[in-house]
Amino acid sequence: MAGPAALLVSIEHQAVALCTLRAATAPRPPHNAPQPSHTQTFSASRPGPAWHSLGEEMEVSQPGGAQELGEERKAPWKSPMEGDKGGDLTLLSPGEPRPERLARPGPVRCETLREMALLSKLSRLVEATSRLVQVERTLLLPLLQQHPLPLHPKDSIEFRNICSHMALQREGQQFERDLQEAHQCLKTIIEKLICSLAVFPSDSCIPVRATLRQILQNLLAM
Question: DSSP for 149-169?
Fold first, then answer.
């Protein structure tokens, strides 16, 4: 039999594991190489000085070409079609990206179904651990002050160690194995708590057992 002190030790180890799991769920940078920005892409696609020189020679060789060339130099951001429409255009400096280019989404990392399944399992593990710590602090701890229960702090220590090792991997087969072990270890902790409450001599443990069963059910949900 163990009292509140043993439960507090278990809660402490579980809280450390919870912080580690939350850190493991932080977004990872994409694997693909960084793509050029929209500004760089737009600047690279603009015609170079040689194109302008050729265009200027063709414009000047025609009657009135010098006047038209002067007008183009005053407004290089306007195309001939835009000029004919006479629309009110926002002034853009040369090389500045247009708003429609900025609105286009950049490249995103596509996750595989396997990665999505692992992320879902990790999220359930985080949620179950958080709920367990909350129930132990608010509901189970007062019960232990009335009657000692058989507890197993070593399971919480093992759970903390597995989560710490898993956070160092972040991906790969070892990460999947650690995630499975952490999942099984937390399941064992909850099941042992439910069994311990079965010998409690008061009906006040019934809500706690029901809550623990719900946490276990959510943890095992597919």
Answer: B---HHHHHHHHHHHHHHHHH
**Residues composing the chain:** 222
DSSP string, the chain: -B-HHHHHHHHHHHHHHHHHHHHHTSPPPPSSPPPPPHHHHHHHHS--HHHHHHHHHHHHTSTTHHHHHHHHHH-TT--HHHHHHT--PPP--TTPPPHHHHTS----PPPPHHHHHHHHHHHHHHHHHHHHHHHIIIIIHHHHHHS-B---HHHHHHHHHHHHHHHHH-SSHHHHHHHHHHHHHHHHHHHHHHHHHTT-SSGGGHHHHHHHHHHHHHHH--
Amino acid, single-letter form, for residue 74? K
Using one digit for the tens of pLDDT, what is the confidence trace for 151-198? 889 999 999 999 999 888 767 788 899 999 999 999 999 999 999 998
The pLDDT tens digits of the residues spanning 126-162 come to 999 999 999 999 999 998 888 888 888 999 999 999 9
- In 3D space, the residue among 174, 184, 167, 181 whose CA is nearest the CA of residue 219 turns out to be 184
CA atoms within 13 A on the CB side of 197: 23
User: What is the percent of the chain where pLDDT is above 90?
Assistant: 37
